Structure formats: structure tokens, C-alpha cells
Amino acid sequence: MILMKKDSVSFSKAGIPILMLRGCCGAFYMIAYFYTISNMPLLDAILLVNMSPIFVLLFSSIFLKEKLPPKMYGALPIVFIGAILTIKPFSYSTFSIVAIFGILSAVFSGAAGVCIRFLSEKHHTYEIIFYFMLTATLTSIPLMSNSFVVPNSLELFYLICIGVVSLLAQVFLTKAFTHENPVVVEIIRYIGIVYNAFWGFAFFNETPDLYAILGGILIVVGCILINKLKQK
Predict the structure, then answer these.
(1) Which runs of consecutive H residues, i.e. helices, occur in 64-147?
(2) Mean pLDDT lowest for which of 30-34, 45-49, 150-154?
């Protein structure tokens, strides 16, 4: 609201249902995302979440009637094979079940991306982000009603840091898509996988196994290939 006030951005009277839908998709994405990264290795979780461009393309073709280039269908199996290797469904473990939430986070992220694309022509970036934050807050309240834990001072500090960093990430990412070629933005986003691999190793001593490495390579290569084909 401070950013909206600073740039004289007013609340729209039209498009509220889509703004709320974008907020719900973003909220469910964050819930599934946090659940995933808290219950499986950080790198594996990030790899699954980074499948979102696939669902952006699929939802765009369904709801926005954007046609997919025929060559793109050949790249989709690369990503799904990578996801299978990362999920490891053949292990039949809790790990595999948690990984499904990683896929769901990518689905909701893709749905939110399509909503943003639809809204961007008539709504300011800050208004879209505001509805996301508001809806995510309202959605989270009933989910934590029976298990809310009062954070201590240190935990509250960490939570505030997460909130501030997440807000800045939303602002910068949305502005990046507004001012730069989407292919460039998407490719640069994959640098985050390298950072998360480093944090997982440095702080939690997480070393990815061969399946996660191969799956991650396929996911990244497949998504970059799809983004390049999308612009042709």
C-alpha cells in the first residue's frame, strides 16, 4: 500500500474476481512451496517448482487461446522425464508424496502467471501484488487456526525477513517481465537453482543424488528450450 500510495496507484473497480483468483493461485502456490521445501531437500524442491513455465504454456493455450508451436511438444517430455527422476516415484516413500506438492506449487505458479498476463494490460503491478498478499493472508488464517504457534523474537525476525524478501522478489520479478524479454528473464531465473543448491549444501549438508542431478539438468534444459521455442 505504501508503494501504491507513492506512485499514486488507485484500486480498480473492475476485474476484482480475476485479481482474487490470481491471489488464490499465488497463495496456494506459496503454501505448497513452503510445505515442499520444509519436507524435502532444498535443491530437489526448487527443481520441481521451476517446472512452472510448462504449466504457463499449457494454461495459456487453454484459457488465453495462445497456440503452442508444434516443435514445443517435443520438448515437453524432457521436462516430465526430469520431474520423474527428481520425484523418484519408484521409491514409494513419503519423499515421493511430498514431491507431488512441489509439482502442485508449479501448477499454481503457472496459473498465477497466466492471471498476471491477463491482468497486466489494465492493472498496475503494485495492485496485482497487493491482491496476492491480501488473498494469501486471508487464505492462510483458516489453515493455521488449529496449529498456530506464537513465534519467539528470533523466529518473528526470520518471518519478517521472509516477508520483506518475498515482497521485493515479487516486485522485481514482475517489473523484469514488464521491461525485459521474457526469454531472458526465464533463463536468468534458473540461476536460482545454483544458489539453492549451494544454500542446501552450506546450511543443511544436502548433497543431491544422481537422480536429482540428472532430473534437474533435464528440467532446466527442457524449460530453457521451451522458452526459446515460445518466441519463434
Answers:
(1) 76-87, 94-119, 125-143
(2) 45-49
Q: Which of 67, 43, 97 is nearest to 205 (CA)?
A: 43
Number of helical (H) and strand (E) elements in the chain, helices listed first: 11, 0
In angstroms, the CA 18 to CA 116 distance is 9
Taking residues 94-113, report their average pLDDT.
84
Domain assignments of the chain as residue spans, ordered by start: 17-140+151-230
Distance CA 122, CA 14 (A): 9
Cell 516477508 locates to 163
Check: CB of residue 7 under 8 Å from CB of residue 129. no
24, amino acid identity: C
Mean pLDDT score across all residues of the chain: 81
Check whether 146 has a pLDDT greater than 50. Answer: yes
Q: Give percent of the chain above pLDDT 90.
A: 19
Distance of CA 19 to the CA centre of its chain: 17
Q: Max alpha carbon distance in the chain (Å)?
A: 54
Residue with cell 506449487: 105
HSE on the CB side for 187, CA within 13 Å? 13
7 vs 48, residue with greater confidence: 7
- Please report where in the chains the cell 473492475 appears, as a residue: 14
H-helix or E-strand spanning residue 58: helix 52-63
- The confidence band for 180, taking pLDDT boundaries of 50, 70 and 90, is low
* Cβ-contact 193, 220 below 8 angstroms: yes
